[in-house]
């Protein structure tokens, strides 16, 4: 049976598979808005795709003529110099359906938090492998490449085209790299996005908005009786309102059917700012205080609906509060609204993934919504290629000691290979 020979190939090639993860993790590719350092890892992806027999296309997103004129282009000063996309096409023998794997090679910065493992070593400890970006989402792309290598080594002739695209600038609401691939003409009968789904088939992803909330005070020190207004007190009051909003919306939300088992809608407060960081003993009231908040929503919720819900909740509370009514919040949108997205639950690619999962995993794979936002909307909204999220399991994405669970990662390769066989169709070379 195909599953047994695929499983045996993975067992034999385990060391080289994990070494490929190590190789990609060892090449830093941090997204430091508005710049990024994806170049070297993208050149490595290009090299590996060519070794597998793919015809590759290496191009900057800004090389695509219509990119900046497209309604979905995020025009916020991002710099794409030395940040190429890489797309590999493996032409099939004909008659099969085409399949596209799409992932991003940019990672969040390592940050100042302490790692107990070297973020660039790809160290294996027991059943886990560590590394910055290994879960989100370098190992998922390795799984796609290894699935193709496995089938070619086993002398399968794939009938449909297989496309593997590695894009830049997905973090921080980017997705211009993904949009550029759509506008460059890369399409398929279905796409798989190897975001970390914990081996759950995710036809849907959440959306969200990112806001900066600022409070303007009256700075200084009242040596001569001047009246100062400290905006930190207003921010503290509003943070409590944010906490109440998070609890209220999760209690009263109309839960999307694909999120019944994981209904939480995150509301994440981050990056608080106040005062002069270079004036520790300045002995003065700061002029302003601000913080950033990310608010997620279910597929089908519009930007206008999410904003109306948020402001409709806090506005009456602001008006009733003595401090906040004097120093009201100023709301600024920081990044594009990321729309939630989804596929019809009867789409054929979902059935094929289910069948492949049933062969590989006892009891099969769960079908649910992804509890995060990503660039899948660029497929489902702005192209003819329907996209499903299905990727590795692990933990600590966007945090120290990011890791993948190796046994599940190997299952992912197996399921990808079986999916290619079933979706693209293949036969043995004679």
Automatic annotation (TrEMBL):
Its cofactor is Zn(2+). InterPro entries: ArgE/DapE_CS, Bact_exopeptidase_dim_dom, Peptidase_M20, Peptidase_M20A. The keyword Metal-binding applies. It comes from the Bacteria. GO terms for molecular function: hydrolase activity; metal ion binding. Keywords: Hydrolase, Metal-binding, Zinc. It holds the Pfam family Peptidase_M20. This is Acetylornithine deacetylase. It comes from Brevibacillus panacihumi W25.
């Amino acid at each position: 049976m195909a599953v047994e020979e695929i499983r045996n190939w993975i067992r034999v090639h385990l060391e080289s598979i994990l070494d490929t993860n190590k190789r990609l993790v060892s090449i830093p590719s941090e997204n430091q808005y508005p710049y990024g350092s994806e170049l070297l890892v993208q050149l490595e992806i290009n090299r590996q795709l060519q070794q597998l027999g793919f015809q590759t296309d290496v191009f900057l997103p800004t090389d695509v003529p219509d990119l900046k004129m497209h309604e979905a282009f995020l025009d916020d000063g991002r710099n794409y110099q030395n940040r190429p996309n890489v797309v590999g096409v493996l032409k099939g023998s004909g008659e099969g359906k085409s399949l596209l794997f799409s992932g991003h090679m940019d990672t969040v910065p390592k940050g100042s938090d302490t790692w107990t493992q070297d973020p660039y070593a790809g160290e294996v400890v027991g059943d886990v492998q560590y590394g910055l970006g290994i879960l989100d989402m370098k190992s998922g792309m390795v799984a796609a490449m290894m699935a193709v290598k496995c089938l070619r080594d086993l002398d399968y002739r794939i009938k449909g085209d297989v496309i593997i695209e590695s894009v830049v600038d997905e973090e921080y609401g980017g997705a211009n790299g993904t949009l550029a691939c759509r506008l460059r003409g890369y399409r398929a009968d279905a796409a798989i996005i190897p975001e970390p789904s914990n081996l759950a088939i995710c036809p849907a992803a959440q959306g969200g908005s990112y806001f900066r909330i600022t409070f303007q005070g009256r700075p200084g020190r009242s040596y001569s009786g001047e009246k100062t207004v400290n905006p930190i007190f207003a921010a503290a009051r509003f943070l409590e309102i944010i906490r109440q909003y998070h609890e209220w919306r999760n209690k009263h939300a109309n839960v999307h059917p694909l999120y019944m088992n994981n209904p939480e809608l995150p509301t994440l407060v981050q990056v608080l700012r106040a005062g002069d960081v270079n004036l520790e003993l300045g002995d003065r009231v700061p002029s302003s205080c601000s913080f950033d908040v990310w608010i997620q929503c279910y597929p089908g919720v519009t930007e206008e609906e999410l904003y109306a819900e948020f402001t409709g909740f806090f506005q009456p509370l602001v008006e009733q509060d003595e401090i906040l009514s004097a120093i009201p919040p100023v709301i600024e949108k920081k990044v594009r609204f990321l729309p939630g997205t989804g596929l019809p639950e009867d789409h054929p690619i979902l059935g094929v993934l289910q069948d492949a999962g049933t062969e590989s995993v006892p009891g099969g794979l769960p079908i649910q919504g992804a509890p995060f936002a990503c660039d899948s909307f660029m497929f489902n909204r702005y192209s003819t290629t329907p996209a499903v999220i299905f990727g590795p399991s692990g933990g600590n994405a966007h945090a120290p000691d990011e890791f993948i669970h190796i046994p599940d990662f190997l299952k992912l390769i197996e399921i990808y290979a079986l999916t290619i066989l079933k979706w693209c169709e293949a036969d043995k070379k004679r």
